[in-house]
Amino acid sequence: MNFSNILIKWYLQNKRDLPWRKTTNPYHIWLSEIMLQQTRVAQGMPYFFAFTEEFPTVFDLANASEEQVLKLWQGLGYYSRARNLHKTSQYVANELNGVFPDTYKELLKLKGVGEYTAAAIASFSYNEAVPVVDGNVFRVLSRYFDIESDIASPATKKEFTELAHELLPKENPAIFNQAIMEFGALQCVPKSPDCPVCVFNDSCLALQKKKVSVLPVKSKKIKVTNRFFNYLILEDVLGNTLIQKRTAKGIWHNLYEFPLLETTDIVGFDFVSNAVQNDIFSTYTILSIEECSETTVIHKLSHQHLHIQFWKVKINEIIVNGLNTTDLKNLPFPIVIYNFIEKQEINC
């Protein structure tokens, strides 16, 4: 048996029972692929069910408000995916009469759809012979064929794509693409794979050369920026509070948050008190200021670590258009803020 046949046989015996594998509907496959970008299957699956229930067709998704989409997406992270998802649904519904493009090249033109996602939809929905190349595929092929090319390089992406295309059975590309991704997710995992039970343990070059732990090669390091957020929970005499929408480009675009004091380091009561009384809320009569927790919450994003403190600021006035906790829970927030509200620490 060759590589492809062994791989597919393994897949048929070991594949997970996932809902998007039971359909060729491009809408469902597109949804799942967007959700699974930078997200584990276990985390993404509840969102897939929630979206397909709330928005059974691309028209339903297109007709929703962005706020509805962001709220349902809440907690999945990388919110630009949700915004692009919504915009693309509107394009498909309104410009393409609800029919998704049926070729790899046309799918690439959709907002938020890159090479990998386009290849997945094209092969899974339309059986087009185009290979998928993601982190799992890089890992499997680099180890099996002992390829030391730096996967951070664009030239390497082309190299792996050409190799995957050679291995791809043209009569059934979908099952091969599913198989190699599943193999990377379940068997040829990043750290400490169980090589003795692997179906390729007699032919994998990395195993033979004791190079499994060093492949694939990736030289590019992600530079992490530390940011320091102080969220100010204003509370008026009615128990209502104030929020704002993040309209600037960057993290959490179009999500809601409490008034924010961003600093260059973790700060204490004196600094926050001075900023609140003399600048941020100088038009209110401040009754008290207190930190809601002695522990700073560290929220890790791909390129940023957010050090978050929450401060309760009680005032003597009534906030115009103030919101209560029930109102807040209906709006899309970054999950770290929503969890704070959910735990009712707002009443600290």
UniProtKB/TrEMBL annotation:
- What Gene3D superfamilies does the database record attribute to this sequence? Helix-hairpin-Helix base-excision DNA repair enzymes (C-terminal), Hypothetical protein, domain 2, Nucleoside Triphosphate Pyrophosphohydrolase
Q: Where is the signal peptide?
A: none
Entry note: cofactor: Binds 1 [4Fe-4S] cluster.
The HhH-GPD domain covers which part of the protein?
35-186
Quote the catalytic activity from the record.
Hydrolyzes free adenine bases from 7,8-dihydro-8-oxoguanine:adenine mismatched double-stranded DNA, leaving an apurinic site
Which GO terms of the molecular function aspect are on file? Answer: 4 iron, 4 sulfur cluster binding; 8-oxo-7,8-dihydroguanine DNA N-glycosylase activity; adenine/guanine mispair binding; metal ion binding; oxidized purine DNA binding; purine-specific mismatch base pair DNA N-glycosylase activity
| Cross-referenced SMART domains | ENDO3c (SM00478)
Keyword Nucleotide-binding part of the UniProt annotation: no
Where does the source fall among the domains of life? Bacteria
Q: Does the keyword Thylakoid apply?
A: no
> Which keywords does this chain's UniProt record carry?
4Fe-4S, DNA damage, DNA repair, Glycosidase, Hydrolase, Iron, Iron-sulfur, Metal-binding
Q: Which family does it belong to?
A: Belongs to the Nth/MutY family.
Query: Under which name does UniProt file this protein?
Result: Adenine DNA glycosylase
Organism of provenance: Flavobacterium pectinovorum
Q: List the lineage, top down.
A: Bacteria, Pseudomonadati, Bacteroidota, Flavobacteriia, Flavobacteriales
